[in-house]
Write a structure and sequence with these properties.
The structure holds two protein chains of two kinds.
Chain A: H1 6-14, H2 19-27, H3 34-45, E1 51-57, E2 60-64, E3 70-74, E4 79-82, E5 92-96, H4 99-103, E6 118-123, E7 130-136, H5 150-157
Antiparallel strand pairs in A: 1-2, 2-3, 3-4, 5-6, 6-7
Chain B: E1 5-11, E2 15-22, E3 27-33, H1 39-51, H2 58-61, E4 65-72, H3 74-80, E5 87-92, H4 98-101, H5 113-117, E6 134-137, E7 140-141, E8 147-149, H6 153-165, E9 170-174, H7 183-199, E10 205-207, H8 208-211, H9 217-231, H10 234-247, E11 254-257, E12 263-265, H11 280-293, E13 298-303, E14 308-314, E15 317-318, E16 320-321, E17 325-326, E18 329-330, E19 335-336, E20 338-341, E21 347-351, E22 358-364, H12 383-389, H13 407-422, H14 426-451, E23 460-464, H15 468-476, E24 483-487, H16 493-499, E25 503-515, E26 520-521, E27 524-525, H17 530-553, E28 562-571, E29 578-582, H18 590-607, E30 619-630, E31 652-660, E32 663-671, E33 680-682, E34 685-689, E35 692-696, E36 700-704, E37 709-714
Parallel strand pairs in B: 1-4, 4-11, 5-6, 5-9, 9-10, 13-23, 23-24, 32-34
Antiparallel strand pairs in B: 1-2, 2-3, 7-8, 11-12, 13-14, 14-15, 14-20, 16-19, 17-18, 21-22, 24-37, 25-30, 26-27, 28-29, 28-30, 31-32, 33-36, 34-35, 36-37
Helix pairs in contact in B: 1-10, 3-9, 6-7, 11-16, 12-13, 12-14, 13-14, 14-15
Classes of the chains: A alpha+beta, B alpha+beta.
Chain lengths: ~160, ~725
């Protein structure tokens, strides 16, 4: 069964893994110990000490606070909210809803019309990292996109409860 | 008695093999580390290693070497490692991004089926020419070879000026439809020469119409660029090897194995043809032996560490592929059609955790063998591990005993990774893996033959390579081949085959000439045959001239050359052409056309099906081909006296147990080099040589003939 060193996974996270190893990782069966190793890699990667229990998106993690609360925290250290809430409601938002603003991204007429669609860019309030982008009709609620069932995942997939 | 030798060398990625064969068919193989900076050093060391087995030195032998053949992977490695020459490219305006787009298909060429479906694994190649060194010039030749837009010569001038400033070592020119009309490319050449003369530069130009005048623009661009990028620098290597040969007193001209199955001079204009030569040697060797023995239809099967290569020889001819791919490049070179299917002896065996079934490959440990190799640190069992575990492979005989394999490590590997997860016994699991492997190969063999419209009893199957003889009984069982042949020198068969190759050039040219269905009636041809004939004949003539020019470099005059004339034909509007060899030199009559049609129809109905024939569409000749051959000295097939059926006691090695069909058998073990012609081996027997092992399971027997070929027969009912 495939297994990778922590160093290889670190390179995977940094985007420096060589193309042959990357191809292997993509083609092979999933390495069974990946989750635990990748948590260690991320934990070493961030500057804060809260325990990561789940990577949520490229720059977002679910961390376990000392009071037992599960908080969504960005790589820069900004704490958004509890895991069951929509973190986007606590982020800085840049709204593009005019043709001029679309022009900055797409050639004219190759983007949607602002009456039909707007682009919402969610930024980290600490350091301005772009965390997520959504393209939705005007007035549509902020999409709550990943609502993990952490306890079931730990109990039934990993076979050990989260303590 | 006057001696004469044939030498062939194979400079692989790690080892350089040199093979000497004398007039009686006796041969030695030498091995030495490959020395990429100067291959002639490894070549010299390998020669010394080979010849010491005859108590001779290179100086003694080379003056009597009459043929020397080179094959190697240095060109391919230069391409893979992107260490070729710095080039500039001039293309038709609009095509400048070809190496970035690479028709999409090059992002997954050569991938396993699973990975082809998995788009996330697809990746663009690093372009062999940087985008800033690609220049587009306006102008257009249409598909009929007529000028639609004149060439904008100022743009050529500007491009060449910039390329001169970039200090490129060569300029590739590939304009659209240049195979139909080379005027614009010739103009580019003239203008470029003017600019270079002004600037005092002298950069070689590589014109596609000059080197590879064939259709399919992107593959042609690739081929011409690879020629300039990777093949051109090889000339220096060849020169150094040739210098060694003459330093040893040899006066033979070194020739290079090319992808079409012939050898060409190292001064040949189109050297990229030698890029792919690895698996071809064996097929050339098989064809040579078959010809001697009067066999027409051969299946060649070669199991190496990573792949199972399968090729067909039908009516004494190879099937040629016009557009092969190599190292994720689509190329436009004639290549003997060889399919790499299934897996090799180093392929990994695993249990798929989702389906709980055994899966083999597609990746492999290759030269690292498997977990049983104490010098490698493999963590997944391979087919070799299963073979060691079941007694098929002698752990003390691997590479002649250079590496002692560890059956316990193989046992642990198979147990942990396959047997335990499946709840099977360890030996039972290992046998299951091998059965799965052999079943898979058997299906592939059958499918290839059946797909050509033949059945196995029309064919003799040859099995060679390090792993072929090990599994040959398994993958031929029940298929009822006319004969199953294993050469006693199976492991060195590729090198032997290279030495059997003709001195042969093969040049292709696109013509795209058709004659419509309406021009044909039962009485013959009413329409003007002349237009078609003119197109074919003039192309053949131009190719003959080029073949003659190539031979001229080796001091061979045109009247010594035997020419063969070939057309590639398809039904008008269809996509797959079929190669047709004709027995006339020029199309001069309706009978000639009828011969092309008849032979095409015949080949087509075999390759596809009789019902798929579509003569009403008319016939289109896509490419014409000329091959020119000069006979060369080839190794003799050994002829030894036939002795009794019982193998000599001196050939017998210590017996061991071999696991087959769920039980252990007491096997007779022999030294393959010491058994005699006429000897018969019944299952279970194992014949060992330093680089290969022939296993005869229960229900089979093998007989060694006077040419040292084993013939294997199934004896159970």
């Amino acid at each position: 069964m495939a297994t990778y060193t922590k160093d290889q996974l670190k390179q995977l996270v940094n985007g420096t893994v060589d193309k042959y190893t990357l191809h292997d990782m993509q083609s092979q069966f999933k390495d069974p110990d990946r989750f635990h190793k990748i948590l260690e890699v991320w934990q070493e990667h961030v500057d804060w000490d809260d325990r990561i229990i789940l990577p949520l998106a490229e720059n977002l993690f679910v961390v376990l606070k000392e009071d037992g609360k599960r908080i969504i925290k960005s790589r820069s250290g900004y704490e958004f909210c509890e895991v069951h809430e929509n973190w986007k409601l606590h982020a800085r938002v840049f709204l593009r809803n005019t043709e001029e603003q679309f022009d900055e991204l797409y050639p004219r007429k190759m983007a949607c019309h602002p009456d039909w669609m707007e682009i919402r860019e969610y930024y980290d309030p600490n350091d301005g990292t772009l965390l997520e982008v959504e393209a939705v009709p005007p007035g549509y609620p902020a999409i709550h996109d990943f609502q993990p069932d952490i306890d079931t995942f730990y109990n039934e997939w990993l076979g050990q409860p989260l303590q | 008695m006057e001696k004469s030798y044939i030498m062939s060398m194979d400079a692989g990625g790690t080892m350089t093999d040199v093979f000497f064969v004398d007039r009686d068919g006796k041969f030695v193989v030498g091995k030495a580390q490959t020395t990429p900076h100067d291959e002639s050093e490894g070549f010299a060391a390998s020669c010394v290693d080979a010849l010491k087995q005859w108590d001779m030195k290179p100086d003694d032998v080379f003056p009597e070497v009459i043929t020397g053949i080179y094959s190697g992977t240095s060109m391919l490695n230069r391409l893979l490692e992107r260490k070729g020459q710095n080039l500039g490219v001039i293309v038709t305006a609009g095509q400048e991004d070809y190496f970035q787009l690479e028709r999409g298909i090059q992002t997954y060429l050569g991938y396993s089926y699973q990975d082809r479906l998995k788009v996330v694994t697809h990746r663009h190649n690093e372009p062999i020419v940087p985008r800033k060194q690609m220049f587009g010039v306006r102008g257009r030749i249409d598909c009929f070879g007529k000028q639609a837009i004149p060439l904008y010569e100022d743009e050529v001038r500007d491009a060449v000026r910039q390329l001169v400033g970039m200090d490129v070592k060569g300029i590739v020119v590939n304009l659209l439809y240049s195979f139909a009309n080379s005027d614009h490319e010739q103009r580019v050449k003239a203008v470029a020469n003017e600019v270079m003369a002004e600037a005092g530069a002298d950069i070689p130009l590589y014109l596609s119409s000059d080197l590879y005048p064939v259709m399919q623009d992107f593959a042609r661009l690739n081929t011409v660029t690879v020629e300039a990028y990777a093949a051109e620098p090889s000339r220096g290597q060849f020169k150094r090897i040739a210098d060694r040969v003459s330093g040893y007193g040899g006066d033979t001209q070194l020739r290079v194995m090319a992808s079409h199955g012939g050898t060409i001079s190292m001064d040949a204009k189109e050297l990229a043809r030698t890029l792919i030569s690895g698996p071809i040697g064996g097929m050339v060797g098989a064809r040579y032996i078959a010809e001697k023995l009067g066999e027409k239809n051969i299946v060649c099967s070669d199991i190496g560490g990573t792949s199972f290569d399968l090729g067909l020889i039908t009516d004494g001819e190879f099937t040629m592929k016009a557009q092969p791919d190599m190292a994720k490049f689509m190329l436009k070179l004639p290549l003997i059609e060889i399919d790499s299917v299934g897996a090799g002896t180093g392929s990994y065996a695993r249990v798929n955790p989702i389906s709980n079934r055994i899966e083999i490959g597609p990746d492999s440990a290759g030269s690292k063998v498997g977990m049983c190799n104490p010098q490698a640190s493999e963590t997944t069992p391979t087919l070799s591990d299963c073979n060691v575990l079941l007694g098929n492979l002698n752990p003390y005989n691997f590479l002649g005993g250079d590496v002692v394999l560890d059956p316990d490590a193989a046992y642990r590997g198979v147990k942990e990774h396959i047997a335990d997860p499946l709840g099977l016994g360890v030996h039972e699991a290992a046998e299951g893996v091998l059965e799965l492997f052999e079943d898979h190969l058997r299906n592939e063999v059958f499918a290839r033959i059946f797909g050509k419209g033949y059945s196995p009893d029309d064919y003799v199957i040859y099995s060679y390579g390090g792993g072929g003889p090990l599994h040959v009984c398994g993958y031929t069982a029940g298929l009822k081949f006319a004969d199953v042949v294993v050469p006693a020198w199976a492991a060195g068969f590729s090198a032997f085959g290279c030495a059997c190759a003709d001195f042969e050039y093969r040049l292709d040219r696109t013509v795209n000439a058709a004659f419509p269905a309406s021009d044909m009636d039962p009485e013959g041809f009413k329409g003007a045959v002349s237009g078609y004939a003119e197109a074919i004949n003039s192309a053949w003539a131009s190719l003959e001239t080029r073949v003659a020019e190539e031979f001229d470099k080796s001091g061979i005059s045109s009247d010594q050359v035997e020419y063969k004339h070939i057309v590639r034909v398809q039904y008008a509007g269809q996509l797959n052409d079929v190669e047709v060899t004709v027995d006339f030199e020029r199309v001069e009559s309706a009978e000639h056309l009828q011969q092309i049609i008849d032979r095409f129809e015949d080949a087509y109905s075999k390759a596809y099906s009789r019902a798929a024939r579509s003569p009403e569409l008319g016939y289109q000749t896509t490419n014409v081909v000329v091959t020119g051959t000069v006979p060369v000295e080839k190794p003799a097939l050994p002829v030894e006296t036939v002795s009794s059926e019982t193998p000599p006691e001196s050939a017998r090695k210590e017996g061991r147990k071999v696991y087959r069909g769920g039980q252990w058998h007491e096997a007779d073990i022999y030294d393959m080099d010491k058994v005699l012609p006429g000897n018969v081996f019944k299952g279970v027997s194992v014949l060992e040589s330093p680089a290969t092992t022939l296993v005869i399971p229960p229900g089979f027997e093998a007989r060694l003939d006077e040419h040292r070929l084993f013939h294997i027969k199934e004896i159970k009912g």
